[in-house]
TrEMBL record, chain A:
It is found in: Cell membrane. This is NADH-quinone oxidoreductase subunit J. Keywords: Cell membrane, Membrane, NAD, Quinone, Transmembrane, Transmembrane helix. Its main location: membrane. InterPro entries: NADH_UbQ/plastoQ_OxRdtase_su6, Nuo/plastoQ_OxRdtase_6_NuoJ. The keyword Membrane applies. It comes from Streptomyces antnestii. It catalyses: a quinone + NADH + 5 H(+)(in) = a quinol + NAD(+) + 4 H(+)(out). NDH-1 shuttles electrons from NADH, via FMN and iron-sulfur (Fe-S) centers, to quinones in the respiratory chain. Couples the redox reaction to proton translocation (for every two electrons transferred, four hydrogen ions are translocated across the cytoplasmic membrane), and thus conserves the redox energy in a proton gradient. GO terms for cellular component: plasma membrane. The keyword Transmembrane applies.
UniProtKB/TrEMBL annotation, chain B:
Pfam families: Oxidored_q2. The keyword Translocase applies. This is NADH-quinone oxidoreductase subunit K. The gene is nuoK. Its EC number is 7.1.1.-. Residues 99-132 are annotated as: Disordered. Belongs to the complex I subunit 4L family. It is a multi-pass membrane protein. The chain crosses the membrane at residues 66-89. It comes from Streptomyces antnestii. Its main location: membrane. NDH-1 shuttles electrons from NADH, via FMN and iron-sulfur (Fe-S) centers, to quinones in the respiratory chain. The immediate electron acceptor for the enzyme in this species is believed to be a menaquinone. Couples the redox reaction to proton translocation (for every two electrons transferred, four hydrogen ions are translocated across the cytoplasmic membrane), and thus conserves the redox energy in a proton gradient. It is an enzyme of class 7 (translocase). One of its GO terms (cellular component) is NADH dehydrogenase complex.
Amino acid sequence: MNTLAAAATQTHGFLSPTGVEIAFLLVGLATFGAAIVTVTTRQLVHAALWLVVTLGGLAVEYLLLTAEFIAWVQVLIYVGSVVVLLLFGLMLTRAPIGRSPDADSGNRWAALTVAVAAAAALVWVVVDAFRTTWVDLDGAAQGTTAVTGSILFQHWVLPFEALSVLLLAALVGAIVLSRKSDRTANTAKTATTARTREGNR
Amino acid sequence: MHLAYPAVLSALLFCTGLYGVLARRNAILVLMSVELMLNAVNLNLVAFDVWLSKAARDTLHSGQALTLFTIAIAAAEIGIGLAIVLAVYRGRGTSDIDKLRDTAESPDDGPDGSAPDASAVAVTDEKAEATA
């Protein structure tokens, strides 16, 4: 077993990375940097735009891992709709365009400590566990549309349908939540009429 | 490719999202950080799926199916979350999480806190946010 692992490290050393690994590393650095800027910038709209870079970088990583279908779904759903929704939310809550000094809360240093500790622990465990594991990317791609479609509709049909019900429920819930309730609408109307009456008098 | 590369990247992205959730004050920025954490999990799922489909001859491709489900659920979550944030903003005029402290207990509050009727609606909103 040990000799096998040693042989694996011999053939695929970290010091002689393949081209895919170099590409993955570079895109990963860009993605991680964009993620850092997303959570630290004080300009709210810029945070959403840096999130686009992060999600796009992740789509490229999916492509490098030969999961084509998921990469394009990522581009369509995340970059296409989620970020647009977030920008809508920022605009509707009248987010300031310039720098907002109160973007970060007071417990920033506690958050930083927790995050760095979690990152150190996770990276250590993950590197220790998967140091010698080799992902074979050669041969047929693992995530083409044909493969994904066949597994989704052969083995995962029931969860897929349940998911569509969940999406419907989420849609209805979002509409109910964002509709003005009758009571507030009525009070607003009476207030307006009272004000008009005052003005007329 | 070594499995360590995507695994480490996903761990780092997850912790970045964790920092954002804990440190941000605007509710929409917190939602963005949650998206970062979900994406880190997706990267992990895809990487392990590609590994296992070759190494363990896994024909079920559970990682990719679960990634698609996570993406759909994240889209639903962001829709509901933004609806809640907008409802809170309409009721309160702020989307600042530190100021939404109606359900927090403070020592000077009486047992039957003298909450006026107007803030009762906002309290329900906040409960909805907590359960979401």
